[in-house]
Cystine/glutamate transporter (Parambassis ranga), 509 residues
Amino acid sequence: MEEVKKEESNEKKKVDEEVVHLRREIGLLPAVSFIIGTVVGSGIFIAPKGVLMNSGSVGLSLLVWVLCGILSIFGALCYAELGTSFTKSGGHYTYLLETLGPLPAFLRLWVEFLFIRPAVASYVSLAFGRYVVEPFFAPCAAPIVLIKLVSILGVTFVVAVNCWSVSMASRAQVTLTFIKMFALVLIIIPGIIALAKGRKMFGFILPGFQTVGFASSSHVSAGKTENFQNGFEVDLLTLDRLPLAFYNGLYAYGGWFYLNFVTEEVINPNRNIPLAIICSMVTVMIFYVLVNVAYYTVMTPAELLLSDAVAVTFANRVLQGLSSVIPILVALSCLGALNGGFFAVPRMLFVGAREGHWPPVFSMIHIRRHTPLPAVLLLYPLVVLMLIKGEIYQLINFASFSRWFFIALATLGMLIHRYRFPDHPRPFKVPLVIAVTFTVVCFFIVGLSLHSDPWNTGRSCILTLTGVPVYYLTIHHYRLPKRWRHIFNYCSKQLQILLEVAQQEVQTY
């Protein structure tokens, strides 16, 4: 009898391995690593310049970093409720579909494919390329063509890993997360020592500053605090620039919602999603504020604004023995953020195709690798195209309008769904005041940004609206000519054969 049961168990296991579906392989540690690894990317090494540029002073920029952290934690808590209330993967798309209906959900899918994901991946990969290339050309400027070529190689590597194996992408994310946290610690510790002691560090005296660093009998000062004195100078602050400061800060915190894209692959999601979100976001906020304090301890605001690679400038000042290591660590940090994005976002396209809002071939997975291969590959050419054409700060403002508008819509939808369906199961429930505060602030920032940067945000708004006629022509009323449909179906079939992909055979939600 026991042998029969054992044989049945082995047969069931074998069948389960052969069945085509996405598997639950993400535990608590990979989930925390996934969020931290996606959030901590290029942002903390690029955005300080954008935050300072638009806030106008050291004190206000630090306040922006704290407020952006709190706002991101509020948003992450809202998404913890959404992720445990709706068990499907797909993140923003799924929540808009369940709460506000198919048109907002399709528009979110449309802008993600058209420009949000290409823009986000482009500026992260550009940062990767810059930190890899610039040390070889310092103190001269690195050739932009070479930076973009290395950026494309980085994107190609990440796409290949995510096409090959879910577990490999997950393990890579855990490893890269530990590396990037080590990079932040390397910045924080000497910055805090400099702030506390104000002594000579590694025999180097900063121009225009008191000496910084470890104890030295020949150079002693009271502490590295000049940049924090009279830090709240509001003369340079203008209301129209403030939303752009928040956009840069929120860009650095962006990624807290990516775990919700892979809900169907998280082990025990009702426990692990809220726990992973809370642990990771509190950790990230503390680290980000300390890193910015370290930056301002060593560099004046003017020097920070002149630097295109803030972490490298910092390392050259206070970590001369390790200055060549920092760019490598930052580049790996960017690679981790890229990996997290390419792991999560294709799941949104995958779910959208499964719901009939995207071509069916993108709801298929590889028959042996069990990865959403078509959805991953779809994003690759768009990222490369935008990477070749884009400039880093324009890309941030360009992508942020639609991204934050739809996040605000998703949390608004959550509040409406609470009111309409009070008995719907909600294993985790965020306090109402947090949800309302987050939604109102997001709508306020989005509205004000139309005035602050009308060109980039206006283009983003127009491109979002182009999805409306596409929705009514291809989904709401399927009015494509018969010949077009025949060509489309033939291409889809050939693509399915070429990529060796098939529909899921098991429901995972």
Remarks:
- The CA atoms of residues 201 and 213 lie 4 Å apart.
- The domain at 24-503 is CATH 1.20.1740.10 (Amino acid/polyamine transporter I).
- The mean pLDDT is 78.
- The beta strands are 364-366, 501-503.
